[in-house]
Design a protein that fits this description.
The chain is of the alpha/beta class. The protein has a domain of 90 residues. The chain is 32% helix and 18% strand. The longest helix is centred in the C-terminal third of the chain and has 19 residues.
Length: 309
């Protein structure tokens, strides 16, 4: 197997393929360019904008490439899709379960491939027991769990697990209700992720209302993604960031196609996402990145030397 994107995050497809083949008695290992294989799986989540394709030597009778980085047509067979993942191939993430309870999203945002890949309707696709077996932490990968008609049953499974749950992809704040908030309150939550992607949408009332319903009082556990470099101005980016912070949420800047982003947007991401900077320097206009601060300091030293001479 080849995890094209690297091993900074476990590849769920490869974990399922590993478990499936081991159950059949096959030998499974990470690719070694010095060896020849019957079959090599290459899985790639990201496109060229975020990661480079594998260019190493592969000697194999058959090579299968899959994942959104290679396109949307190559999907796991049903029996593999519903195989419990082999967490042993990523020992650095031991103790954490990864998976989907639902797939799809009705929003159809232009920057997101979920609608095209999984459909514009959120549907339940698995029970928690399919990928969780007592791990202390659960990383949930669902795109829009609150849009699923079975949200109550699925949130109930998460609550009953007693595990610490991280809703990694974000919960749709526009779909929050007192009943859904109450169900979330019963889940042990490591992090609640929301998103304010479109600056034209006024989500302030939704975020304020949720504060009255939630039992999560630590603002550091109420994170909100802020999409930048996708049709928004710098002023619109700042407005969302300041508004979220003032309401008691922890903004986190996501840069769309970072290679095309202007310097001010990259600096904004550095300020917001480094929480020490973000708390120590309340106003973005006062933020000076480390390298500029160092450069400024060196310049002052030079001038002092010259004046002293």
């Amino acid at each position: 197997m080849i995890d094209v994107d690297g091993h900074r995050w476990p590849n769920l497809c490869l974990m399922k393929l590993s478990a499936y083949h081991k159950a059949r008695g096959d030998t499974v290992e990470w690719h070694d360019g010095r060896r020849r294989y019957d079959l090599v799986y290459m899985s790639r989540v990201f496109t060229d904008s975020y990661s480079k394709d594998f260019t190493g030597r592969i000697r194999a009778d058959q090579i299968i490439r899959g994942g959104t980085g290679y396109g949307l047509s190559n999907r796991l067979p049903d029996d593999v899709e519903h195989t419990r993942p082999d967490y042993g191939i990523y020992p650095q993430f031991a103790g954490t379960a990864y998976g989907f309870l639902s797939r799809g999203c009705p929003r159809g945002c232009g920057f997101c491939i979920v609608g095209e890949k999984e459909g514009r309707k959120t549907v339940a696709v698995a029970d928690l027991s399919e990928f969780w077996a007592g791990e202390k932490e659960i990383k949930l990968l669902d795109a829009n769990l609150l849009a699923c008609p079975d949200w109550e049953r699925l949130l109930g499974q998460l609550a009953a697990s007693g595990a610490m749950v991280d809703f990694t992809q974000g919960l749709d704040i526009r779909l929050m209700t007192p009943e859904k908030a109450a169900a979330l309150n019963r889940v042990r939550t490591k992090m609640l992720h929301f998103a304010w992607d479109n600056p034209e949408d006024d989500l302030t009332p939704y975020f304020k209302q949720f504060l009255e319903w939630t039992s999560v009082k630590d603002c550091r556990k109420r994170r909100a993604y802020v999409l930048t470099n996708y049709g928004s101005t710098h002023e619109q980016d700042l407005y969302r960031i300041y508004t979220l912070r003032d309401m008691g949420y922890d903004p986190y800047v996501m840069v769309y196609e970072k290679s095309t982003a202007p310097p001010v947007t990259r600096r904004l991401q550095q300020w917001v996402n480094n929480k020490w900077f973000f708390r120590a320097v309340p106003d973005f206009n006062d933020f000076v990145p480390n390298w500029r601060r160092k450069q400024k300091g060196e310049g002052n030293e030079d001038r002092t030397s010259e004046n002293g001479a």
